[in-house]
Amino acid sequence: MELKEIRLRGETVYSGKILTVQEDFVALPDGNEARREVVRHNGACCVVAIDDDKNLLLVRQFRYALNKQLLELPAGKLDVIGESPLGAAKRELLEETGFKAANWLDLGAIYPSPGYCDEVIYLYVATNLTKAGNLNLDEGEFLQVEKYSLDDISEKILYGMVQDAKTICAILKVKMLIVEGKIEI
To answer: Which domains does the chain have, with CATH numbers?
Structure first.
Protein backbone atom coordinates (compact mmCIF):
# COMPACT_ATOMS: atom_id res chain seq x y z
CA MET A 1 0.00 0.00 0.00
CA GLU A 2 1.38 3.40 -0.98
CA LEU A 3 1.20 5.91 1.88
CA LYS A 4 -0.30 8.76 -0.10
CA GLU A 5 -3.52 10.75 -0.06
CA ILE A 6 -4.93 12.24 -3.27
CA ARG A 7 -6.98 15.44 -3.22
CA LEU A 8 -10.40 14.91 -4.76
CA ARG A 9 -12.00 18.29 -4.17
CA GLY A 10 -11.97 21.18 -1.76
CA GLU A 11 -12.45 24.85 -1.11
CA THR A 12 -10.82 27.77 0.63
CA VAL A 13 -12.84 28.56 3.74
CA TYR A 14 -10.72 31.47 4.98
CA SER A 15 -8.00 33.66 3.48
CA GLY A 16 -6.19 36.12 5.72
CA LYS A 17 -3.00 38.13 5.94
CA ILE A 18 -0.72 35.28 7.10
CA LEU A 19 -2.63 32.10 6.37
CA THR A 20 -5.32 30.40 4.32
CA VAL A 21 -7.55 27.57 5.52
CA GLN A 22 -8.71 24.90 3.10
CA GLU A 23 -11.23 22.13 3.53
CA ASP A 24 -10.27 19.26 1.25
CA PHE A 25 -11.57 15.77 0.62
CA VAL A 26 -8.98 13.11 -0.16
CA ALA A 27 -8.80 9.52 -1.30
CA LEU A 28 -6.99 7.43 1.33
CA PRO A 29 -4.58 4.59 0.57
CA ASP A 30 -7.31 2.04 1.38
CA GLY A 31 -9.74 3.65 -1.09
CA ASN A 32 -11.89 5.40 1.50
CA GLU A 33 -12.50 9.14 1.50
CA ALA A 34 -11.62 11.56 4.31
CA ARG A 35 -11.94 15.26 5.07
CA ARG A 36 -8.78 17.31 5.72
CA GLU A 37 -8.55 20.83 7.14
CA VAL A 38 -5.29 22.39 6.02
CA VAL A 39 -3.67 25.66 7.03
CA ARG A 40 -1.57 27.10 4.19
CA HIS A 41 1.31 29.35 5.24
CA ASN A 42 4.09 31.00 3.19
CA GLY A 43 6.74 29.75 5.59
CA ALA A 44 9.22 31.38 7.92
CA CYS A 45 12.86 31.60 8.91
CA CYS A 46 14.67 31.38 12.24
CA VAL A 47 18.18 32.54 13.19
CA VAL A 48 20.59 31.29 15.83
CA ALA A 49 22.62 34.49 16.08
CA ILE A 50 25.87 34.04 18.03
CA ASP A 51 27.91 37.09 19.05
CA ASP A 52 31.67 37.32 19.58
CA ASP A 53 31.22 36.52 23.29
CA LYS A 54 29.50 33.23 22.30
CA ASN A 55 26.12 34.47 23.45
CA LEU A 56 22.94 33.71 21.54
CA LEU A 57 20.55 36.55 20.78
CA LEU A 58 16.95 35.73 21.66
CA VAL A 59 13.80 37.78 21.69
CA ARG A 60 11.08 37.83 24.31
CA GLN A 61 7.63 38.64 23.00
CA PHE A 62 3.99 38.22 23.89
CA ARG A 63 2.19 35.55 21.84
CA TYR A 64 -1.50 36.33 21.77
CA ALA A 65 -2.60 32.82 20.73
CA LEU A 66 -1.05 31.44 23.94
CA ASN A 67 -1.70 34.52 26.08
CA LYS A 68 1.88 34.50 27.36
CA GLN A 69 5.40 35.71 26.71
CA LEU A 70 7.80 33.36 24.94
CA LEU A 71 11.56 33.42 24.64
CA GLU A 72 12.45 32.70 21.01
CA LEU A 73 15.19 33.02 18.45
CA PRO A 74 14.78 35.90 15.99
CA ALA A 75 12.41 34.75 13.27
CA GLY A 76 9.83 35.89 10.82
CA LYS A 77 7.54 35.17 7.93
CA LEU A 78 8.56 34.75 4.31
CA ASP A 79 6.36 37.63 3.24
CA VAL A 80 8.43 39.57 0.70
CA ILE A 81 7.74 38.43 -2.85
CA GLY A 82 10.86 36.97 -4.47
CA GLU A 83 12.88 36.96 -1.25
CA SER A 84 14.80 33.76 -0.48
CA PRO A 85 14.61 32.13 2.96
CA LEU A 86 18.20 33.28 3.63
CA GLY A 87 17.31 36.81 2.54
CA ALA A 88 14.36 36.75 4.92
CA ALA A 89 16.60 35.49 7.73
CA LYS A 90 19.05 38.35 7.16
CA ARG A 91 16.19 40.86 7.11
CA GLU A 92 14.58 39.46 10.26
CA LEU A 93 17.88 39.39 12.18
CA LEU A 94 18.43 43.06 11.39
CA GLU A 95 14.82 44.08 12.11
CA GLU A 96 14.52 42.21 15.40
CA THR A 97 18.01 42.66 16.86
CA GLY A 98 19.72 45.48 14.96
CA PHE A 99 22.58 43.12 13.96
CA LYS A 100 23.97 41.90 10.66
CA ALA A 101 26.09 38.77 10.26
CA ALA A 102 29.07 38.14 7.99
CA ASN A 103 28.80 34.33 8.21
CA TRP A 104 25.70 32.21 7.62
CA LEU A 105 25.18 28.45 7.90
CA ASP A 106 22.07 26.67 6.66
CA LEU A 107 20.70 24.24 9.28
CA GLY A 108 17.93 22.88 7.07
CA ALA A 109 14.20 23.15 7.53
CA ILE A 110 11.50 21.88 9.87
CA TYR A 111 7.75 21.35 9.64
CA PRO A 112 6.35 22.60 12.97
CA SER A 113 2.80 21.21 12.66
CA PRO A 114 2.56 18.83 9.67
CA GLY A 115 -0.68 17.26 10.85
CA TYR A 116 -2.68 20.27 9.67
CA CYS A 117 -0.31 22.96 8.35
CA ASP A 118 2.12 23.17 5.41
CA GLU A 119 4.37 25.77 7.07
CA VAL A 120 8.10 25.18 6.66
CA ILE A 121 10.64 27.03 8.81
CA TYR A 122 14.18 27.47 7.49
CA LEU A 123 16.85 27.45 10.20
CA TYR A 124 20.17 29.33 10.06
CA VAL A 125 23.19 30.11 12.20
CA ALA A 126 24.58 33.65 11.95
CA THR A 127 28.04 34.54 13.28
CA ASN A 128 30.51 37.40 13.09
CA LEU A 129 27.80 39.86 14.10
CA THR A 130 28.05 43.62 13.81
CA LYS A 131 25.63 46.21 15.17
CA ALA A 132 23.99 47.77 12.13
CA GLY A 133 21.18 49.86 13.56
CA ASN A 134 18.22 49.94 15.86
CA LEU A 135 15.30 47.56 15.95
CA ASN A 136 12.95 48.02 13.01
CA LEU A 137 9.90 46.04 14.07
CA ASP A 138 6.75 45.37 12.08
CA GLU A 139 3.65 47.37 12.98
CA GLY A 140 2.15 45.88 16.13
CA GLU A 141 5.33 43.91 16.94
CA PHE A 142 6.94 44.43 20.35
CA LEU A 143 9.89 42.50 21.73
CA GLN A 144 12.95 42.62 23.94
CA VAL A 145 16.36 41.33 22.86
CA GLU A 146 18.14 39.13 25.42
CA LYS A 147 21.49 37.32 25.39
CA TYR A 148 22.17 33.83 26.75
CA SER A 149 25.09 31.44 26.66
CA LEU A 150 24.43 28.15 24.88
CA ASP A 151 24.59 26.33 28.23
CA ASP A 152 22.12 28.74 29.88
CA ILE A 153 19.56 28.57 27.07
CA SER A 154 19.96 24.78 26.88
CA GLU A 155 19.12 24.56 30.57
CA LYS A 156 16.07 26.79 30.04
CA ILE A 157 14.95 24.45 27.24
CA LEU A 158 15.48 21.36 29.40
CA TYR A 159 13.42 22.75 32.26
CA GLY A 160 10.57 24.09 30.15
CA MET A 161 11.39 27.79 30.31
CA VAL A 162 11.77 27.84 26.51
CA GLN A 163 8.81 26.21 24.79
CA ASP A 164 8.98 27.54 21.25
CA ALA A 165 9.50 24.61 18.88
CA LYS A 166 11.63 26.36 16.24
CA THR A 167 13.93 27.69 18.95
CA ILE A 168 14.34 24.28 20.55
CA CYS A 169 14.99 22.57 17.19
CA ALA A 170 17.54 25.12 15.99
CA ILE A 171 19.47 25.19 19.26
CA LEU A 172 19.48 21.38 19.42
CA LYS A 173 20.93 21.26 15.90
CA VAL A 174 23.64 23.76 16.86
CA LYS A 175 24.54 21.74 19.97
CA MET A 176 24.74 18.54 17.93
CA LEU A 177 26.96 20.16 15.31
CA ILE A 178 29.27 21.42 18.06
CA VAL A 179 29.44 17.96 19.67
CA GLU A 180 30.23 16.39 16.28
CA GLY A 181 32.97 18.97 15.72
CA LYS A 182 31.32 20.34 12.58
CA ILE A 183 31.02 23.90 13.89
CA GLU A 184 32.77 25.87 16.57
CA ILE A 185 31.46 28.83 18.47
So the answer is: 6-40 (no CATH), 44-179 (3.90.79.10)
